[in-house]
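Deliverable D4.2, example record:
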Amino acid sequence: MTGRQDGCVGYRDLWRLLEDYPRATFAVLDMAGHNLQIEQPELFHSLVENWLVRTEEA
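Output generated by the structure prediction step:
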């Protein structure tokens, strides 16, 4: 996950890391910067919960 308005790290360069994580989902959250869990808490928690379920199934 990355924030579209992240002025610290950005979001475009993170795409290249995706191949290193077979259970990854790449999500760019609009209206969020570097603090996704604070700026988009419901979406952040939903995506984390989904990821946890998928890693347990693997």
